[in-house]
Design brief:
Layout (H helix, E strand, L loop, with lengths): L1 H21 L8 E3 L16 E3 L2 E3 L3 E3 L7 H17 L2 E3 L4 H5 L5 H9 L5 E6 L4 H10 L4 E6 L1 H6 L10 H11 L4 E5 L6 H9 L4 E3 L8 H8 L15 H12 L4 E5 L5 H9 L4 E4 L1 H10 L1 H21 L5 H4 L4 E3 L1 H9 L5
Length: 347
């Protein structure tokens, strides 16, 4: 089983890169931040810092969970952690389940902390993890927080995937009660609706990563892996990122911090996310594609450009920090507006 898990991780990278090449990242096209022609902002005074339940972020950009568990994963994690250290970014590792079952895979995760001893690093496990496994995953990389990922659509598409999802919320609550770092519950590309965001908060979750549709599509990836029987008509399943973000923010208010991820491609998408109420933004597939195709230097430049674009947008909207950006009017149009209208959610 562990050998199959290792092979699956390799295939996930391979097929996600093939899909990324064709992907049109346009999920935020319905969102516009209102321009301010009388901005009084000095660019040097713009502050991009934020925080997630007292985890202080110098930048709202997070390098989200991608990989680990095999040699290529170790190489990728090493390069990502070097960038995270240099730019002062928080970073998550991929699922550590394989490392808990195969000790020789631990190195591919521990390298992140070794390279970035003082950085902000998130551990990662599935919602079926035990408290003991959660504690081990955090200790493995001396993590500042633990991501628990939700991925039912991906699991049901995998021939070797889980089929029983009972008890997930109770399991998450148990981990929260017995672990000494914040828990981030995240989707992997299918979004979180208002109802489930509320359930998470009512069960002790303080940080939610909505992980909506628009970016890496694990249903499409599993269809590419499972050539004998595919379900292409299900590949559009899920909630688009800006919709999931709005549903979560409007529902949980200040009871939890929200991270926007899924299909973000530039500083404009990040700024729109922050204006809609996100405390931070997370990138995975687009970063990995640049890293593998163009190298670490290109990814570093890309991230710096994203930060610069956020600063420019904050100047153009007349705000000096993320909290002020949240107060700027946002116009929602098109399918996003129609969806929210049907759901009875008012911006």
């Amino acid at each position: 089983m562990d050998g199959k898990r290792k092979q699956r991780k390799k295939e996930h990278i391979k097929y996600s890169m093939l899909l990324e090449k064709m992907l049109q990242r346009n999920v935020f096209n319905d969102i516009t931040i209102l321009h301010n022609c009388l901005s009084q902002v000095n660019l040097k005074d713009v502050d991009l810092s934020s925080n997630l339940q007292n985890i202080k972020l110098t930048s709202p950009i997070i390098i989200n969970a991608m990989t680990g568990g095999m040699k290529k994963g170790e190489i990728i994690n090493r390069k990502l952690s070097e960038i995270a250290k240099k730019l002062g970014l928080a970073m998550a590792v991929g699922s550590q389940t394989i490392a808990l079952k195969r000790p020789n895979s631990i190195r591919s995760f521990k390298v992140v902390r070794e390279i970035n001893p003082d950085g902000i690093i998130f551990a990662n496990l599935g919602a079926d993890a035990t408290v003991e496994e959660a504690i081990k995953a955090v200790q493995m990389i001396d993590a500042d927080a633990l991501q628990i990922h939700l991925n039912v659509p991906q699991e049901v598409m995998m021939k070797e995937g889980r089929r029983n999802f009972t008890g997930a919320i109770n399991n998450i609550s148990e981990i929260i009660r017995n672990i000494n770092v914040p828990v981030i519950v995240k989707e992997v590309g299918f979004g979180i609706a208002a109802e489930e965001a509320l359930t998470l908060v009512e069960n002790g979750v303080k940080i939610i990563d909505v992980g909506g549709t628009g970016g890496t599509n694990f249903m499409a990836i599993e269809n590419m892996r499972n050539k004998s029987q595919t379900y292409k008509h299900l590949q559009d399943w899920g909630i688009p990122t800006p919709i999931s973000l709005i549903e979560a923010v409007k529902t949980v208010g200040n009871r939890a911090d929200i991270i926007s991820s899924g299909g973000l491609k530039n500083g404009l998408d990040a700024a729109k996310s922050l204006a809609l109420g996100a405390k931070a933004t997370a990138f995975a597939g687009s970063f990995l594609y640049i890293l593998l195709k163009e190298g670490p230097s290109s990814l570093e430049k890309h991230i710096l450009k994203i930060e610069k674009e956020i600063r420019y947008i904050m100047a153009m909207t007349g705000v000096k920090n993320i909290e002020e950006l949240k107060q700027r009017p946002v116009i929602v149009q098109g399918n996003t507006f129609q969806w929210l209208k049907c759901r009875g959610i008012i911006i």
